[in-house]
């Protein structure tokens, strides 16, 4: 009997771990299923943005149980991939042990958009952009 393949470990980083990386964690966990262990963190952890929770709920993905985490919680842990989804996180991303492949996708901060309806739409656009990137990336693995 063959052993089950080991799950890939993926860490997704952004600045506050409140919007982009939270949506990315939920999306990748949903799309990859049992193939990956997915985590997210930030260089300045805060709280999960309610607009991120709503944007993901519109896709049927519940991220309301996720919490904002500082990247220090993951230092010293091995990852197969470290994905940064904002420029600030890419610049301050530490070196992780092992052979973690670093991937950078730059997405604007939807929380910076003014006005409730415009902000909700900005979150949807980032969500949809992340989903497209993840679908294409998963096809290459």
From TrEMBL:
<keyword id="KW-0059">Arsenical resistance</keyword>
<dbReference type="InterPro" id="IPR023485">
    <property type="entry name" value="Ptyr_pPase"/>
</dbReference>
<feature type="domain" description="Phosphotyrosine protein phosphatase I">
    <location>
        <begin position="8"/>
        <end position="140"/>
    </location>
</feature>
<dbReference type="InterPro" id="IPR036196">
    <property type="entry name" value="Ptyr_pPase_sf"/>
</dbReference>
<protein>
    <submittedName>
        <fullName>Protein-tyrosine-phosphatase</fullName>
    </submittedName>
</protein>
<dbReference type="Pfam" id="PF01451">
    <property type="entry name" value="LMWPc"/>
</dbReference>
<dbReference type="GO" id="GO:0046685">
    <property type="term" value="P:response to arsenic-containing substance"/>
</dbReference>
